[in-house]
Amino acid sequence: MDFYYGLAQTVGIHTLLGLSAYIVLLTGQVTLAQAAFFAIGAYAAGMLTVLAGWHIVPALGASAMFGAATACAVGFPALRVKGLMLVVATLAFGEGVRLFFFNFDYQVAKGEIKVGPLGGEGFRQIRYFQEHGWSTGEVMLFVWVFVVLAMAALWWLDRSRYGAVLRAVGEDELAAQSVGVNLTAVKVSAMTVGGAVAGIGGGLYAHYTTHIEHANFNVLLATFAIAYPIVGGLKNVFGTLAAVIFVQAFLIEGLRFLGDWRNLLFGALIVAAMNLRPQGFLGGRRA
Amino acid sequence: MKTLAIAVALALSTSAFAQEKSIRIAGFGAKSGVVRSFGINSEAAMLAAADVINKQGGVKLADGSKAKLVIDYLDDRCTAEEGISVLRRIYGTDAIVAVGPTCSNVAEPLFGILQKKVDDKGDSGLQMPVFTDVAIKIGLAKISEWAFRNVPNESIMYSSLFYWLKTKYPNAKTVFGGVEEDFAHSRASWYAIMKDRAEANGYQVLGNSKWLLNDTNFATQVREMKNANPDIVAISAHPFTTCGVLKEMQRQGVKPKVLVGLTSSSSLETLQGCAKQAEGMIIPTSFAPVTKEGKTAAETTAKFKGAADLHSMAAWENMFILKQVIESEKISGDKSQLQADRRKIRDGLAKLRETKGLMGVTKRTDDREADKPYLFVHANKGEWKVLHNPL
Amino acid sequence: MLDFLQAVSDGLLFGATYALIGIGFTLVFGVMHKLNLAYAAASVGAAYAGLLILQVAAGAPPWVVFLCAFLGGGVIGWLVYVTCFHFIPLSNPLAPLMATVGMLLLIDEIIVHLTAGMPQNYPAMFDDVMLRAGEFTLRGDLLLVAGVSVVCMIALLALLYRTRLGLATRAVSQQAVAAQLCGIRVGQVNAMTFVVTGLLGGIAGALIGASVGALSPLLTAPLTVKGLIVTVIGGLGSIPGAIVAGLLVGALENVFQQFRGVTERDLYVMLLLFAFLIFRPSGLFKQ
Predict the structure, then answer these.
(1) Within an 8 Å CB–CB cutoff, is residue C94 touching chain B?
(2) Does domain B154-285 have CATH number 3.40.50.2300?
(3) What is the largest CA-CA distance in chain A?
(4) Total domains present in chain C
(5) What ipTM does the predicted assembly reach?
(6) What is the pTM of this model?
(7) Rounded to whole angstroms, how far apart are CA atoms C68 and C65?
(8) By CA distance, what is C98's nearest residue in A?
(9) Do C271 and A96 lie within an 8 Å CB cutoff?
(10) C117 confidence band (pLDDT: 50, 70, 90)
């Protein structure tokens, strides 16, 4: 049973990552920066629970804030860069954040050992869940509380006027602008919300793996972040969830019985999915 | 009447087959990416060892019956998330112990999710014994009392190597290092081990150059090396960048008296990438096919399409150590006693003070690590040949 | 001072490899307005394909291997076009991007499976030639790479501006519908362009393998990132821009490494990219 709870945790955390990209993709901005906000959330939550002894919930709140703040700061210069150039810019930003953590040392002595991030060696022993006796099932429920909250919030946003405005900007910026939509406010706010969701996801990730290092937050993770909403379709949040389940539960875990073929099929099935359903599993147009 | 007798005999024999007991041991490691060969070799070694054990009758259980060993091998792709997921999956099967992982960056988070101290009711960490064959970064087993490793102690090996080099090359006084900065193992192995042990043996460490795991241009670093003009160059990096650096050294005409490499680079990979430039490189290792048992193990593993090196042979040794523990701790093999059996394996591994290795007796330390016998190999005409055997 | 100039010249020369991979990227990105994230992987894959000839004719000279890589690149380029761009309708701009990600993963996995992930020795030409200019040493093989880049540039410019295919390519990139109305077969033109960039990628992969001395799947990710950065700094679609940007990035990389060490080096390369995006978004050479 533990395995399924663990898998559900992975699906949940990756869904948060995917949702953070989903909301930004709605506005037509292709962002490879979500892994960076994820990383910031991870290190922040880890440092707060391990070095400062905080409870996990306020630590995650802080992750959300740090993620949101960074995303907001990135959102403004991102306005100046259009289309596929934004992909490169956000990729570079993501790499920049990863390299920052590669060089980041902050160790505090606890008893006879030193704890905290140590540059290339990473940040070990983030054992809040284990030290407080949380079972795998309890951690899974905890993660999913946040996933459900995020999905509900984004679903509600989508159904509101704000959602219509987001999608309008995504479809045709010029038309949206001509009916009085404030492009800056829309794009930056979407980026900020995405940053907050990614921050929470990252905070949970740090506690789930107990050891984080810069290499975890690389270009591949950033690509997975946008892969989920693209493969799942931008129709609604369930598309992203479906894509995460497809990738994590089916492609990675479910195909294990195929042995070596699993890895080959991974890339091949993504190519096939994009050719067969280019608008994503659930489609792109909101019903 | 005869048909009835034959039918009864067949029925009895098939029911005997049906009652054949099995003990499952799960291996896991990297079968993807640049470290794929490690997973392939470890799996082959485990299958080969299990085959030998099963042909000799299998393992003896608590009730005196014999059981065959069944091996699973799972791919964790050298990522922390998948390693954790794989271990949880193994926990959900009837495997009594897990052998792995390959990558140090998987071992650290993985040991972190295990219960830190046994019998700590407040710690909800996983209670599954893990017996590592490959992940070699220093000091990992002390993260959890359920983690055990059968990997060489690099600190002791390099200390011995530098000591021996002093006698063999008395004119060599200075050392210059090359470090792969962004990989946990290679980084720790330079700063905490090679540099430290060289200085402890009286060498003057002139400095070190740094590069990253997938760098391709080493001109600046080798120039630094050239300017320092060291007698010994020690490279703490994996085969790809080691080969890149060696080729650049050849280009710039840097020829130190002695070339020292990283433990895990004493494999086929380095020779495949740059046999010519690696000629003469000395590496301490915990396996070479010089003993009778070692040669047999290598040959049997080759039958299962794996190469024998210090990593895969540790997996082979692990299987025989586990056989010994299964029998001495009286494992029941009963699925309803699974968790009790796992605890017995853990306790059994913790009790061991020494184990039989392919190179001789391996001592086990208090923090669940191994003190393995070692020797020095050097690259000679496209092969790793034994240079000096301190045993 | 001498060290600094030597570092600059070392970097400048190695930048020739970035220039070579950048030319192909900028052609696809800038002329066709499509982001092919699988380009570097395809180039490395073509280099591996070049090694296949050594299985058949063990003592073949290096240029035969390079020729095989060249041809292999064309084939792989065509395959990437068919699997990622041909069948996906233009109304879904993100699907081809994701499909190329799938191809990148697939090509990497195929390489890993065939070689068990181990580095493969690559034949080189002039790799033992070190030219001396006073106190300086210059790598002969990298001068060859620089020379080949210039030849490729001339050949490509001739192709684009002096042939019918080039005319058709430029027409399709500017106004696909109008081009179709003029009788240009868009699908065929796109396929040919991918074949041409694939051929170029094959040469790039082979020469990069020769400069590094060994091929490994580790080459793919950094080349993809560098290629994208060089494309943006050089100016989208500008082939001379890609060359100049490649040399510039190579030189500056080494300078950053000299002053701030290898762990911070890439951080400064990212900052360089941001500087260009903010102050000169059209790159060095406008197109």
Answers:
(1) no
(2) yes
(3) 64
(4) 1
(5) 0.88
(6) 0.89
(7) 5
(8) A227
(9) yes
(10) confident
